[in-house]
Amino acid sequence: MSTYQYIAQRQAYVPVRQLCEVLRVARSAYYAWQRRQVSSLEPTW
Asked: Residues 10-41: pLDDT tens digits?
């Protein structure tokens, strides 16, 4: 499991800001990863 996946699983219980701070991950990097995950699910026509 990647750090980003861990944050995604825990964000319902702990704020993303706090998770990123503790794990030393930039919030912008996490949200960029999250956008890439969503866009990879969209069909490419």
From this structure: 999 999 999 999 999 999 999 999 998 877 76
